[in-house]
């Protein structure tokens, strides 16, 4: 089955999407995907250089795109509020949020894990994600609801690390599990406001920064679960995937698009796993 060409995909045309972590791999691909489908894009990231690069790439690929960027630290509520206000001023009420910024943290076994790093990972991945979710949800809830009451959508990026616990990544796994709990709680609280909230849990996605960084740091972590050569670590991980390959960033974005679109109009509080079957099981 082939996908319909972006210009014929009307699901996001004229809709306003906010994407966090837009300077990173997933966020950048998301800006391109939704931009090609006629969405108005507000792109946020703490890294100005990466964010500017995203804007330049998106504009080059889609000259007519409507995109605005804000340098925004998700751990700073004032910075998040300023970005959301700016987004509303530029493009009006936010229809969709891809709450995607994240940090992997240190890679070290539990006995050596730094408490400072643990707190930092939780602050970015959990408190930061909730700050963005709440601020955007207030913008959505203040707008007039559509007739069916299910106009607004949010997707939080979690990870398979939340489901099976990746060795030497206790902070990251804990933070991603918290995101799943945040997703189900907020899905219930926000349903009366016409806002659906779902999560995406990718794993073994690449090639890219996180995949390479993780393999290098797992190899040097001293954890007995990993080989000491990054290539051997990578091969071992892929071998553990039933589909025997890495997933692509585009495959992640397409799954996010499903959850953000009306195609999933009766689904909220769900976690969509994108991992080639790695964590398959009854959950
Ligand atoms: N790449 C993978 O294989 C994979 C797998 C599972 C989950 N994820 C999750 O997907 C999301 C995106 O991953 P990616 O591969 O694009 O990573 P990435 O490192 O390329 O991008 C993450 C982006 O988040 C931004 N960011 C970090 N801290 C921030 C802060 N305080 N405020 C604002 N922005 C901040 C970074 O600057 C970066 O641009 C993350 O939440 C990650 O945990 C990735």
Automatic annotation (TrEMBL):
Position of the signal peptide: none
CDD domains according to UniProt: SDR_c
Keywords: Oxidoreductase
Keyword presence, Repressor: no
Entry keyword annotation includes Oxidoreductase: yes
GO molecular function annotation: oxidoreductase activity
Family indicated by similarity: Belongs to the short-chain dehydrogenases/reductases (SDR) family.
Full protein name: Uncharacterized protein
Source species: Chaetoceros tenuissimus
